[in-house]
Amino acid sequence: MIHVFTTGGTIDKIYHDANSEFAVGDSLLPELLTEANVTLPWRVTGLQRKDSLELTDVDRQQMRDAVAACPEERIIITHGTDTMAESADALDGIAGKTIVLFGAMQPARMRHSDAVFNLGFAVAAVGLLPPGVYVAMNGEVFEAGRVRKNLKAGRFERD
């Protein structure tokens, strides 16, 4: 079984046309997993609904505690891209679990989004990688502690 924890981030953002701003909404992950016909058993638990720039050390500790306490060994975490590497570092060292963080550069609700691809890639990665903490984005896997977001290029790179 795969346990998916949602924390918010761009993947779950909703565009509010009235004020031309985005806000984090309900997660589309259950719908996306169903539409993708993921046949592995999975369950989704919401932890936070925040932009990753708003996540605190308390939020990261809540993530760590939830992952450590759950019985599943395969964990996927949706996360905003700006501080994904920091949260991966905070989760490092949880023994016996394969933990994959992923997100999207554009909200899943938008027509042109990398969300569905990144979700499929994260599902494949969590099933294939050995225990550890990883960031899976845009067809690449990075180990916790060895990844950073290149804001200018809009992609993740090895650190």
UniProtKB/TrEMBL annotation:
InterPro entries: Asp/glu_Ase-like_sf, Asparaginase/glutaminase-like, L-asparaginase_N, L-asparaginase_N_sf. Pfam families: Asparaginase (PF00710). The chain crosses the membrane at residues 115-137. Keywords: Membrane, Transmembrane, Transmembrane helix. Residues 2-150 form the L-asparaginase N-terminal domain. SUPFAM superfamilies: Glutaminase/Asparaginase. Gene3D superfamilies: L-asparaginase, N-terminal domain. This is Asparaginase.
